[in-house]
Amino acid sequence: MPASPSSSAQAAREAVAGRLRDLRKEAGLTLVQLAAACGWHYSKTSRIENALTGPSATDIRRWCSAVQAEDQAEDLVVQSVNAENMYRRWRDQVRSGLRHIQESRARVWRDTDVFRVYSSSLVPGLLQTEGYALAVLKMAAAIHELPTDDSGPAAAARVERSRIVHEPGRRRFVIVVEEGVLHCQVANPDAMAAQLGYLLAAGALPAVSLGVIPAGMRRVHWPEETFHIYDHRLVSVELVSAEVTVTQPTEVAQYLVAFEQLRRMAVYGADARALIVKAIEGVH
Question: Mind telling me which residue stretches traverse the membrane in this protein (predicted)?
Fold first, then answer.
């Protein structure tokens, strides 16, 4: 697992930058010579090679033409676009409102047969009640200083989307949370009690496997940020400032391995219910 959830995106950017740098050196050009051939200041060449500035498609084509590697241009353009798409700022996403984000993800949910979710901080959206979701989304609205707070409709949309766990069919939901999630008071006492009570009910659903990693469990590695795995094709990792999307098969495989390690650390059934009941008793 990468040391930081944004490291996959940064590594992808650096791979593009590194390949462009190698092409320049193989052509025997200095930074200044490459810049002159491309028609820009040499400082831009330096920023691109150090992954400080993402190159545009035009930049890449000019670069490859300058080093006589036109046959590699289109592959590098695709690689660069994929790298930039991996890291999407939450602020860009929330311009259309929090409700839009909830509704926009309905399709990928419908196309997924096996959901794997790990959370070290909050109850995952799949199992959130409306009161709990409202509290979480109000915090998001405040953090991002949204001009219009549509957290109410967004919470309702999140709950509506989450009804998928109750639908008959072959979908499976494998969810692992840290015990601390149960004690994180993000909502008022009534909303917290309702949320924890719903976890008891949801954990008993045939399609849901709900595991809780006890606080005293010996760690095989440190807790990760919340991440969702959609089948074997896509991973989304949630940060405060951005969402990282991982689609590279080898990296998705790393997340699957990490999830399996976390899943084995969790307790299930009666033991998980006991931890939830303990958290309910501690709500005040």
Answer: none
